Amino acid sequence: MKKIALITLVSLFVSCNSSAQKTESKEFPVTKTKAEWKAELTDEQYYILREEGTERPFSSPLNKNYKPGVYHCAGCNTPLFKSEHKFDSGTGWPSFDRPIKDNIAYGTDTKLGYSRDEEHCATCGGHLGHVFNDGPRETTGKRHCINGDALIFVPTQE
Ligand SMILES: [Zn+2]
Questions:
Q1: Is-contact 131 106, C-beta < 8 A?
Q2: How far is the CA of 3 from the centre of ligand 1 (A)?
Q3: Is the pLDDT of residue 19 over 60?
Q4: Is 124 a catalytic residue?
Q5: Could you give the 3-state DSSP secondary structure of residue 37?
Q6: Kind and range of the H or E element at 155?
Q7: SS3 per residue for 43-106
Q8: Using one digit for the tens of pLDDT, what is the confidence trace for 79-101?
Q9: Calpha distance 102→141 (Å, rounded)
Q10: Distance CA 92, CA 55 (A)
């Protein structure tokens, strides 16, 4: 039943909303206008967070970053991922086996013609990446495939 309801919801969304900006119709604790976001973010950050873009694989310096610390949302500074949950997926995007619970929210992305679990910041709605089920089996089995440009790394203070 749950699945049918979800499909109905998704098709309802697709039929009423031709644009990909689905996250803008929801209410988030942090809400800004397009112009405000443009003024605060770099072009790359805006493209990913606000237009659900994807950076080129292996382009982010955070891809190979394994220093201890926390990865924050580049849009609103909410902590989203911890360094101990980061792993090398070989995909070219920073990958985590789990997020910081409740700081992330999920949607459905059908842009590539099939359904993917999209994930975004629960505070500002900024798009982060996608979740897949081919993560490390010894931990969660999940692979949170995240754009490095959507994140700000905050190193742990020694
Ligand atoms: Zn955010």
A1: yes
A2: 28
A3: no
A4: no
A5: helix
A6: strand 151-155
A7: HHHHHHHCCCCCCCCCCCHHHHCCCCEEEEECCCCCEEEEHHHEECCCCCCCEECCCCCCCEEE
A8: 999 999 999 999 999 999 999 99
A9: 19
A10: 10
What whole-number distance in Å separates Cα of residue 40 and Cα of residue 65?
A: 24
Catalytic residue among 73, 76, 124, 145: 145
CA of 143 relative to ligand 1 center, distance in Å: 20
pLDDT tens figures, 29-55? 999 999 999 999 999 999 999 999 999
Expressed in angstroms and rounded, the spacing between residue 73 Cα and the centre of ligand 1 is 5
Instruction: Report the 10 Å Cβ neighbour count for 103.
Output: 15
Distance 59 CA to ligand 1 centre (A): 21
Distance CA 86, CA 75 (A): 20
Residue 70, token pair as written in the block: 């926390």
Query: Residues with beta carbon < 5 A to ion ligand 1?
Result: 73, 75-76, 78, 121, 123-124, 126
Contact (CB, 8 A) for 97 and 85: yes
Distance from C-alpha of 39 to C-alpha of 58, rounded to nearest angstrom: 26
Instruction: Tell me if the pTM is above 0.85.
Output: no
